[in-house]
Design goal:
The structure is a homodimer. With about 350 residues, chain A is of the alpha/beta class. Chain A has 3 domains: about 45 residues, no CATH class; about 130 residues, 3-Layer(aba) Sandwich (Rossmann fold), CATH 3.40.50; about 130 residues, Rossmann fold, CATH 3.40.50. Chain A contains 12 helices and 12 strands. In chain A, helix 1 crosses helix 2, helix 5 crosses helix 12 and helix 8 runs parallel beside helix 9. At the A-B interface, helix 4, helix 5, strand 2, helix 6 and helix 11 of A face helix 4, helix 5, strand 2, helix 6 and helix 11 of B. Chain A binds a DNA duplex (30 and 30 nucleotides) through helix 2 and helix 4.
DNA sequence: TAATCTTTCTTGAACGTTAATGTTATGATC
DNA sequence: GATCATAACATTAACGTTCAAGAAAGATTA
């Protein structure tokens, strides 16, 4: 049933041209007579030829493939990013391979190795930031790459595209302050991640601007396991910790927070205002729209790809990077916050 | 800076063994002396060797790669499936490449072609079901594949793993009937998709069992664009169409429905009971939990991969498929439905 | 002690493509 | 009519592996 796969050689034999001529004809090269090209192309289609890009890649050195390495594709935030990268890549006739790291260092290393072993032309990676080692390793291989969503601010060698996390943190906090909240709980992500650290900067900046003292008790890192957020909220309420506003590192944590507050008998936004980050499609997970900080994931994805392609082409010309891009963030007010003045 | 990539040849020259010996040593083959293996492996690591799996794949004929082709990875339903497949594949040292079809026939064809050109060992695909052609094409290539989530019931050649859609439709409808609803709005997906068709069967079966006549006015296909659901709900309410229960094709449509009903001043579950499908929010706790039909995505994914690997190995032995698997579905009652007796 | 087996490695070719360079006929140029 | 350019194809080698054999050495057996 399978029927051996058709190769250039098979087409060459049928047409009495050489393999090379067939190859060039199928690529529509100008130095093959138009008529010959048409004839060969027609026959190739007829015979059901499918190019073997593995062989081509081995010979030519490039694979028209880029790797996208993220922590967790099932997280809608990354899901959207991966989708947008794929869409943009397709326009340039690139294929993507997706690798998960679970934000673990070993898996990150093996993901990078896998990508390299597949001869990808470039890599877009959201680094776990457990350490710099894996990225330095990647850098040394000379394969073009771009960080997305997170950066190593002090390492100029690592190009990146991020959103303006500090501004996002600032806008969220400022909005809560503007609407009358003074005690703002910040449920941050792990601080080794640049986005967490920079959103924290924004949080502090806004507090300072409004003369509100920073209360360490109100700055927490519930971590990525979802139940953690719920437990944390419960214990904060039980301990009687005083706050009326919540700024969450992402929308998922925000939803968790709202869920638990409601469960404990409080209203959102009646008793607490909650603001998230990422602006994940408002109603995929809940009918009650969440106030959030919007970071344009499609823009970030497209820019990351553009830069990567530029680096891929430049690296053929022997030049180097220096790309660092910060995409704007903005506040989107919805129903999980209210003015409490 | 780049520093040419280390190959087996480089290691061979340093060690005075042959390329082949080096290759076999790195693969830990028994017929190379243990000591030699260790020595070569150590040096390979030292020199920063990364295997060129493209070359290996060309020679050996298999790539240790499988393609996963879905409509939209940014849809959490597929996001979870892709993630689970990746996780399972990794255990067997397979890499996945992800391709989007946007449920469009041309993109589906080009996705399949791309996958084949990369010499993937197998394909897991959620077919657009716009037609059978692409899948027949795939079948003729002889490359092992498994359908996931959707099936062509009458084509025995196409192996699949789906969830029990009919049972799911039945359970959802039965539950609404059991809790006192007689007028049940069914917001279905496009009928050319098998899961939509089979859930519809379940819906009809439950109605029949309870002696409730089928009202065509209550069976709608709002489509995948989210605003469509909202418009539809609004116009149904405005037209005064009579219903108290809603069974939605997926959780996203369910959320949209709840959102619009609330916007129009109705309560859920006070005035309307709404039930979804996919049980997406099981992972992400949202403020208002949705009653839903749970289909085990991780189980489906794992089974699909198991079957695919089996087919990959069998196809080397020259055997053929015949795998059709239906994973159980069950009802998960949460807060968007209530007993209205 | 010759024959046979093991162990451990080597040899040569092949996978299907593309890059670089060569060849041939044809027509243009002076 | 000799020279040169051009169009259109051919030839050869190479990409980095792995596969199928084979071979040299010592160990084992009859």
């Amino acid at each position: 049933m399978a029927g051996k796969r058709v190769t250039l050689k098979d087409i060459a034999e049928r047409t009495n041209y050489t393999i090379n001529t067939v190859s060039r004809a199928l690529k529509d090269k100008e130095d093959i007579a138009l008529e010959t090209r048409k004839k060969i192309q027609r026959l190739a289609k007829e015979m059901g030829y499918i190019e073997n890009s593995v062989a081509g890649s081995l010979r030519s050195g490039y694979s028209k493939t880029i790797a996208v390495i993220v922590g967790d594709i099932s997280n809608p935030h990354f899901g959207i990013i991966v989708k947008e990268i794929e869409k943009a890549a397709r326009k340039h006739r690139y294929t993507i391979i997706v690798l998960n790291t679970e934000d673990r260092e070993e898996l990150e290393e093996s993901a990078i190795r896998t990508a390299l072993s597949k001869n990808v032309d470039g890599i877009i990676i959201c680094p776990s930031q457990r350490s710099e080692d894996n990225i330095w390793f990647l850098q040394r291989t000379g394969v073009p790459f771009v960080l997305i969503g997170r950066r190593f601010k002090s390492i100029p060698e690592f190009d990146y595209v991020i959103c303006d996390d500090e501004k996002g943190g600032y806008l969220a906090t400022k909005y809560l302050l503007d609407t009358g909240h003074k005690r703002i709980l910040f449920l941050n992500g792990p601080l080794h991640i640049s986005s967490a650290e920079e959103r924290y900067e924004g949080y502090k900046k806004a507090l300072q601007e409004y003369g509100v003292p920073l209360d360490p008790q109100l700055v927490r890192e519930p971590g990525l396991i979802q139940s953690e957020t719920r437990h944390l909220i419960r214990s904060l309420i039980e301990e009687g910790v005083d706050f009326t506003g919540v700024f969450a590192f992402n929308d998922v944590i925000a939803w968790e927070t709202i869920y638990m507050l409601q469960k404990l008998g409080y209203g959102v936004p009646k008793d607490y205002s909650v603001i998230g980050f990422d602006n994940i499609n408002a109603r995929i997970f809940s009918p009650s729209p969440l106030t959030s900080i919007s970071n344009s994931k499609s823009k970030m994805s497209r820019r990351a790809l553009d830069i990567l392609l530029k680096k891929i082409n430049e690296s053929q010309a022997g030049k180097s990077g220096g790309y660092r891009e910060v995409v704007d963030t903005r506040l989107v007010v919805r129903d999980s916050t209210r003015n409490s003045h």
